[in-house]
Amino acid sequence: LHVDQPLGQGQAVSLTPDQAHYLFAVMREGPGTHVALFNGRDGEWTAEVTSAGKKTGVLTCLAWAAPQLNPPDLWLLFAPIKKERTDFIVEKAAELGCARILPVATDYTNSQRIRQDRLQAHALEAAEQCLGTYVPEVTDLVPLKKLLADWSPERRILWADESLVGAGRVMAGLTPGPWAILIGPEGGFSEGERNWLRMKPFVTPVSLGPRILRADTAVCAAITLWQATLGDWR
Ligand code: SAM
């Protein structure tokens, strides 16, 4: 379980009402149960339930179980698509190891509104599911042009676009550093956006092969390829 409190030997940790409900009512656990806890800073700790109420619970940290493992400094910029597929994108980006997830509005973005809190909850669930010790921040929707207007150029952007068929071997030539992957919406990027992206010195265009992938597939493929080339978990 992810908690927002310090973890350490003998440390008492309180559960949120939702966590207490899940653990005691849904999972039917109670005092004495051992639970894995993480907070994104102190690694994984094994803790024991020391008190269990209807909507409350306290655990006591017993032993350090695993070191803190953070993903590489990779961000995902993606244009939200339909609800379930947007949820899928956030879930997979959290599992595959993105440090930050930024939904962006583009010319052909299907959905101009997102539920940031819902997406953040998906990222958290995904981290718990894969026994990660890090939950990426999911930011609110921001127009791509506005975001890139204030972009700090040390973070290079890997722009995936299906119009770039043939540019396949780009990944192998990338150098380490802070990166962001940019994936477009169902309708892809507009010609205006393409011309504008080509002008940005910090943008590297990349092809993911000769087929037009669904946006959610493109997210998984791009992150995986980047991780295989440059991923340094620490
Ligand atoms: N209409 C489909 C859908 O509903 O998902 C396809 C959408 S595709 C245009 C969405 C995004 O995936 C593109 O903007 C691009 O970022 C990425 N993408 C898809 N195929 C790609 C390819 N072969 N190479 C690079 N990027 C690709």
Q: Brief description of this entry?
A:
This protein is 29% helix and 24% strand.
What does this protein structure show overall?
There is one protein chain. With 234 residues, this protein is of the alpha/beta class. 29% of the residues lie in helices and 24% in strands. The chain has 6 helices and 11 strands. The chain has helices at 17-26, 83-96, 116-129, 144-149, 191-199, 215-230; strands at residues 12-14, 34-38, 44-52, 57-66, 74-78, 100-105, 137-138, 142-143, 156-160, 179-183, 203-206. The strands form 2 sheets. Strands 5, 6, 7, 8, 9, 10 and 11 form a 7-stranded parallel β-sheet that branches. It has a 4-stranded antiparallel β-sheet with strand order 1-4-3-2, with helices on one face. Helix 2 crosses helix 3 and helix 2 (83-96) runs parallel beside helix 6. The longest helix has 16 residues, at 215-230. The chain is elongated and about 60 Å long. The model has no long low-confidence stretch (mean pLDDT 95). S-adenosylmethionine (SAM) is lined by residues 160-162, 183-184, 186, 188-189, 207-209, 211-215, 218.
